[in-house]
C-alpha cells in the first residue's frame, strides 16, 4: 500500500521560521504593553515633590502683605519627614489655594537665617501659622497627619483658634547656624593643598 501523499510535511526550517515569527510578535506585544503601562503611570496626576511645592509657593514678602492667612513650612530636601508630607501638603495647597498662602523656606538657604532664628526652628518640617496680619498664631514641628493639618487650616482661614496647636510628629533635627556661611574662595573640586610659589 502506498503512503498517503496528502499529509503535509514540515521541514525543520519552516518550523523554526514560524517559531521565530511568533516569538517576535510576542516580544513586540510585550514591549508595547510595557510602554503603554509606563506612559499610563506617568500621565496620572503627579505627586507633589518638595521642589515643585517650593517653586509654586507664595513668596514670603507677598504672604506678609496680602492680608491672607499663611502657612510657612521650613523644610530641606534631605528631610525624610518633609518628603513624606509633600503629597498631602500639595493636595491641601490645591484645596486652600484661594484662601491662604503657602510659603516654603529651605533651611539650607542662608537667606532665610533671620526667619529660622525668629521662629526658633530646630527641627523640620517646622510649620508656622500666621494670621491675616502676618503675626504668628501657632507653630508645629514634625510630620502632621493630614486631618490635623486640615483642621488647623480650616480654623486659620476662619480666624478661629487652632484646634491642634500642640501637634508634633517625627522630625529631622536641624541645627540653626549662628551666621550665614561665607562663600568659599577655593575650588571645591580641588582636593590637594595649594602649592605656594
Task: Report a brief summary of the structure.
By secondary structure, the protein is of the alpha+beta class. It contains six helices and six strands. The protein has a domain at 50-173: Glutaredoxin (3-Layer(aba) Sandwich), CATH 3.40.30.
List keywords for this structure.
two-stranded antiparallel sheet, Glutaredoxin, 6 helices, about 200 residues, disordered C terminus, 4-stranded mixed β-sheet, alpha+beta
Notes on the protein architecture:
The protein has a domain at 50-173: 3-Layer(aba) Sandwich (Glutaredoxin), CATH 3.40.30.10. It is 39% helix and 14% strand. The chain contains 6 helices and 6 strands. The strands form 2 sheets. Strands 2-1-4-5 form a 4-stranded mixed sheet. The longest helix is centred in the N-terminal third of the chain and has 31 residues, at 12-42.
Structural class: alpha+beta
Stretches with pLDDT under 50, minimum 5 residues: 42-46, 182-197
Number of strands: 6
CATH superfamily of the domain at 50-173: Glutaredoxin
- CATH architecture assignment of the domain at 50-173: 3-Layer(aba) Sandwich
| Proportion of helical residues | 25-40%
Share in β-strands:
5-15%
CATH topology of the domain at 50-173: Glutaredoxin
| Helix-strand sequence | HHHEHEHEEEHE
Q: How would a textbook summarize the main sheet?
A: 4 strands, mixed
> How many DSSP H or I helices?
6
CATH class of the domain at 50-173: Alpha Beta
Average pLDDT, rounded to a whole number, is 80
Amino acid at each position: 500500500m502506498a503512503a498517503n501523499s496528502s499529509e503535509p510535511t514540515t521541514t525543520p526550517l519552516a518550523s523554526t521560521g514560524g517559531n521565530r515569527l511568533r516569538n517576535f510578535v510576542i516580544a513586540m506585544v510585550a514591549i508595547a504593553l510595557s510602554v503603554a503601562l509606563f506612559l499610563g503611570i506617568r500621565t496620572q496626576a503627579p505627586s507633589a515633590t518638595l521642589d515643585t511645592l517650593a517653586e509654586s509657593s507664595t513668596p514670603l514678602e507677598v504672604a506678609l502683605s496680602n492680608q491672607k492667612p499663611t502657612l510657612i513650612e521650613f523644610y530641606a530636601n534631605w528631610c525624610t519627614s518633609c518628603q513624606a508630607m509633600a503629597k498631602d501638603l500639595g493636595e491641601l495647597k490645591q484645596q486652600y489655594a484661594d484662601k491662604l498662602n503657602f510659603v516654603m523656606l529651605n533651611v539650607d538657604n542662608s537667606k532665610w537665617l533671620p526667619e529660622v532664628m525668629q521662629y526658633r526652628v530646630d527641627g523640620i518640617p517646622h510649620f508656622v501659622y500666621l494670621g491675616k496680619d502676618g503675626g504668628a498664631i501657632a507653630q508645629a514641628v514634625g510630620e502632621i497627619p493630614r486631618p490635623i493639618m486640615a483642621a488647623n487650616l480650616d480654623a486659620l482661614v476662619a480666624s478661629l483658634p487652632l484646634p491642634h496647636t500642640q501637634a508634633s510628629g517625627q522630625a529631622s533635627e536641624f541645627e540653626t547656624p549662628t551666621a550665614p556661611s561665607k562663600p568659599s574662595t577655593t575650588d571645591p573640586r580641588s582636593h590637594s593643598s595649594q602649592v605656594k610659589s
